[in-house]
Amino acid sequence: MDHLWTPWRYSFVTGADSVSGCIFCDLVKLDDKESRIVHRGEHCFVILNTYPYTSGHVMVVPYAHLDELQKLPIEASREMMTLMQKMEAVLRTLYAPDGINMGMNIGRAAGAGVAGHIHMHVLPRWIADANFLSVVGETRVLPEALVVTWERIKKELSKV
Question: Which CATH architecture has domain 7-12+21-157?
């Protein structure tokens, strides 16, 4: 069995309890550029991941503070899936990835960094994007700054 080790995430995951309140609920109160929100829908918003695995790593987050997907109202789940589809299109256009990861970790035991507020990850992937530098050197190389990613995705989303 192969294992994927992500030791650079440990400080973020273990520090999540030190945040007072909910990071997602707090971020929607800020300016879009400051919070890195690229889209606000009726039930959900799309935000850049502050600790991305790759450039273009976003999350689709419902406004409702819920800890289980089964609690999400159907209208919000529909919008969440629509935004996932739009983000797939945007990421394929902007980054031409070899693949796309989409997923949700529900609960701390499942790996959720923010266990109390469900959210879906969407990120472009390339063959061999987890090379020795990230695995052995515990360092990610991201070719563009988050503000550049925010600007590019926001602009492309307006076209979709």
Answer: 2-Layer Sandwich (3.30)
